[in-house]
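Supplementary Data S3. Sequence and structure tokens for construct A.
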Amino acid sequence: MNLLEWRDRPSTVQFGPASWQTRLLNALSAIFVRPVLGVLTVLGLVINRIRPATLQRARLDIIDAPMRVLRPLRGTVVTPTRLPDCPAEWVVAPGSADSDRVIIYFHGSALVTLGLNSYRRFASKLSAATGARVFNVGYRLAPHASIEEAVADGLEAYRFVLATGVPPERIVFAGDSAGGLIAADTAIAARDAGLPVPAGQVLLSALTSADMEIKYQAIKEHFDVLFPASTVKFIYDVFATVNGTRPVPVMPAETNMTGLGPFLLQVGTHEMLRNDTFVLADRLAADGVPVWVQVWDKTMHMFQLYFDLNPDAVRAIAEIASFVEHVTAEASQAA
């Protein structure tokens, strides 16, 4: 773990060069995953043109069920619980059971899929690396729920953890991709509800802006090895706004962030959401919120999930652990 004081670090740090494992995973993703997403996007566009109501009834989260084969780290204790409108679970690695620190985690979803099963192993790794208990939140997904309803689930999760006696200065929100959006929006919602804000936020490859142009610019500079641009636009247009019938949600990069705890933003060079990270960082800095950006060479979207195979992911998680230790210590001292 890097124990260098975070307050002395530069606001943006480049990590690299990429490991051979990162390069191999990029190639495999580009060959086998990206084309499938492209085909599914075209199919979705056709269905949406002919029978749009069919897509709005779809259960795109069914892919999460077989993901239960991704077992948590050995010795991890998983305790299911229930929030008012969604499932959640405590994920506690060996040695973290008595910790007074909690990470509330919002899984990546592209707003429409995956869930607790998909992220249980990663949550257990976070618990082991940080020494914190992880509260894994299965927030509601589009098209059956709006982004605002997902954020409401996040706020209920925060209230639940606070009600167990964990002080806010020992809580960190974290999330990746669309889950990063929910994490940031939940922090804003907590502040606006008059709740004490958590110690900090960790966003990994987060969706934070509705501006598609900055995403197009990102993939002009570096090829996204996972997502075609059409896939992201399709999800946003068809599901997030339900073919334009729901208002465009206000995104964190377009919101006043004043009063929130520090942010750690990790992003890869080879992903479409790279510029979302920089736009959010600019907003945070303008609003006086401490923010650190880590840019990882040639890594793809949410490379941290592959910690079993990739030393770059292991190093990134160690950086997260160092940040969590820093912000919770700073917040506790201030309190």
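Construct B, processed identically:
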Amino acid sequence: MPPVKPMLAKPVARIPPGMQYEAKWDGFRAIVFRDGPEVELGSRTGKPLTRYFPELVAALRERVPERCVLDGEIVIAREGRLDFDALTERIHPADSRVRTLARRTPASFVAFDLLALDDASLLDVVLEDRRALLVRALQGVTAPVHVAPATRDVEVAGRWFEEYEGAGLDGVIAKPPGLPYRQDERAMFKIKHERTADVVVAGYRLHKSGPVVGSLLLGLYDDGGRLQHVGVSAAFAMKRRAELIEELAPLRMDDAAGHPWAAWSDEAAHTSARLPGAPSRWSGKKDLSWVPLRPERVAEVAYDHMENGARFRHTARFRRWRPDRAPHSCTYAQLEEPVRYDLAEILGRPPGDADVTAT
């Protein structure tokens, strides 16, 4: 019975040997519960996702065993790659909007673990046996439900790590084959891409604890010479947060007049430019105000990948200041573009393919 807390992964720098390997899907982690006509989708935090994906509920009711619990990822594909922005739009309070988006941007479910089948809980069953049961239980399943490809071959996993990014995937997950399912524990390993970029630091938000830096606001110049907000860097020790206030004080502006992001509080301005403080149902009543800085300081940050080529998908990690770089040289052109890879090539592979489930 829900809730079930999903097993988690901790980051490592390299793909470890002797594991079961899967792609790291960039979507919403979800636990699927089916008991006859009842289908529930639970999020990673335990909150229900069921009402937001009616098309998936119907598909799961038709395609998965009558009584089962599945662990997997809800994703949306557009033009052969994952689209996380389209996925976030699906979380909407209006039922009419939910139904419209279900038709316009239908979601898929990628199953990668089986936690219960009929009357049997499989939480204490080791991964390699759960995997065999999963493949058997979903044999012949059709879209929009899929079984995640998996392999025991570390060289295949290495190819996936390089190739699958072009389809919008996030890296590789390595799972110990003899591991029971451990709820809410970081018992698996995730290997993600890391690149660096030089960005303009054009503002900051204060930390919730007081007058120290909470996050740096980062920008890149587009082809038209406009500074676009591309993300934040926020992981600093408290001492460093206080130091940053002093370091950035000479660049602080009294207000946003004359700043490239001066129109940030105008909702209409967000339709034609990337600005901080974009209205979002995720932010709720969160204070989105920020302190503008003259866009004269350049920092090197590490990131994993870009969302739709426009912004950092996750929080960037501050590496160092770059006093040798001119702000206007910080453009999108410096970013590495992954080679395109059709998502259908991944989801279209049968789980029994020797190249995929090789042991």
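The chain has two domains: 8-193, 195-334. Residues 65 and 256 are 57 Å apart (CA to CA).
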